Amino acid sequence: MRAVRSCLVRLLVVLVAFALAAALTAGAAILFLDGDEVVAPTAPVEPTESATPATPEAANPRAARSADTLDAPGSGGRLLGTLAAGALLRIEGRSADGAWLAVTELGGDGVESPSIVTGWVPAEAVAGVGDIEALPVVDARAYRLLVETPTARPGAEATATPPGDPPDLVVREVFARENHLVVVVANEGSGDADADGVIEVSVNGGRFVRVDTGKALRPGDELERVVDGQYVQRRSRVAVTLRAWGLLEGRTDNNTFESEIAPDTFNDIEVSGVGVDPDEGHVVVEVRNNSPIPLLGEVTLTVRDAGADRGTLFSADFTLEVAAGGVSRYDLRELTGIEADSLSVTVSTDAISDADSANNTYPR
Fold it and tell me: CATH number for the 169-261 domain, one of 2.60.40, 1.10.3210, 2.30.30, 3.30.465?
């Protein structure tokens, strides 16, 4: 009897083992008893593809370079502030011609700061704008400063001017010195007030340029300063407009001075050489600037046969942009297969008062 019971127990163990093996092979879920707690083995998690990263938002408009923020579109606008390259911007709109954008500078967190102004910057100074023509047109007067309001350049305090006793800045004279443009600025105010703000001048409606005073201008004082980047190439009429930051003037209707000025020393260009390009075989002309200033304008090159008939072979206009003492090279690709010594080349221009026309033809 004991032997039979032992055989049954062994058979039961074998059957249980076989059942367990079959269940594991089939991947069935098995419950294990652990005291009173039932524990189920965790099913393996199927690997899933990672979520597609969110597409980053389009880059916000930023200042592509450092640029002045003006109170009106155009170079005649008054300075409100200066954008640093990379500054985050909100575009408010555009000028009627699309050349200027009205922008508000935002802080690093993209939030407008109460101390940051809205004004105009050149459209080419802003990156990430998109279709400029799709922007709304903003009235050019939207951010205008009142002439009567004293304004301070960023970082400078406005000068308190006693009522009825203000300074009055004027451009008293304009002339040439070594063909550089010189302005004379004076304080013609009647009161005992210093004109110690930042002074800037604009020539013929161009960009305003700072004039370094070096001192406060008391009533009756004047100073002479060379205007950076402004030159006298020929006799012409100029209009110089003055503006000052950090003070309230008694008058602003006398801030523009018009006068005719002429070079005080010679300006001169000459044809310094004529040759043939060794690689391409066309005629090359070199024009030298003998002036004490850089020259900008247009020249006409006329090429004639140096023989008896002096027939014109070529004539065309070219841009003149050359430093003082520099040489401009002009490639006349229309003229090939010609010996340079068989040519006579003349340069002419209305851009300067040419002091020596005898050297305008080569050979001399």
Answer: 2.60.40
Tell me, what DSSP letter sits at residue 195?
B
pLDDT per residue over 141-199, tens digit each?
666 654 333 344 444 444 444 445 678 889 999 999 999 999 999 888 876 556 556 78
pLDDT in the model for residue 59 = 53
In angstroms, what CA-CA distances link 194 with 32, 150, 345? 97, 14, 58
* Superfamily per CATH, domain 62-134: SH3 Domains (2.30.30.40)
Burial class, 179, CB count within 10 angstroms (exposed 0-12 / middle 13-18 / buried 19+): buried
Which CATH number is 269-362 given? 2.60.40.10
Residue 118 phi/psi, 5° resolution?
-105, 135
Which has the closest alpha carbon to 187: 208, 202, 166? 166
Q: Tell me the average pLDDT across 334-351.
A: 95
Going by C-alpha positions, the residue among 191, 179, 189, 249 that lies closest to residue 222 is 189
